[in-house]
Hints:
Layout: E1 5-9, E2 13-14, H1 25-38, E3 44-48, E4 56-60, H2 62-70, E5 75-80, H3 85-94, H4 104-115, H5 120-124, H6 131-138, H7 163-177, H8 185-201
Parallel strand pairs: 2-4, 3-5
Antiparallel strand pairs: 1-5, 3-4
Helix pairs in contact: 1-2, 7-8
Amino acid sequence: MSTTIRAIPLDRLVPHPDNANGMSRGNLEKLVRNIERNGRYEPILVRPCPGRRGYFQIINGHHRLEALRRLGRTAVEAIVWDVDDEQTDILLATLNRLGGRDILEKKQNLLMRLTRRIPIRKLARLLPQTLGQIERLTASNRPAPTRAKADSFAIPMVFFVDNRQQRGIEEALAAAEGSSQGQTRAARRAEALTQIATRFLMPQDGQSGS
């Protein structure tokens, strides 16, 4: 399969209607700043658009395309793969979801190197990590994180629920949050969800705990 990179005008690109990958406004702004800062980005992946001769359908790179539009670019570097609908669906379902997890020691070393050249506040505008996360990872008086501490870093969990389920979950989280102080709302809700799950796993009255 060819991996030749070619420049394609933005007005010849068509988003895939079933692209399920979303990005927060904050991270999109960071993507824009990164491309603006160094002028480089990973080429997007497209295929010839079915039913539209001369157009290309995006498989991977919808957010890069939006970032380039915001920067006033007129063309994008792209790899064109001639794949059918089934192959495209598989790519859509995997390219944005198959990924690893940071090795914390190496992530800390990388951030430490960056902070020696770039102010932390500026880094927080470029990297996925927040200012607070970067400060905690690069604190000079802290030892490198060990494997045992890996669970202390946020791991995203994605669920798809209907309106009724959402209302029930929100009510349960609000009840479990109580009057917790000194944490972000996200941290309070994560702790509340953990409490709900823990209570569910506890043996019920009259039942064995085995």
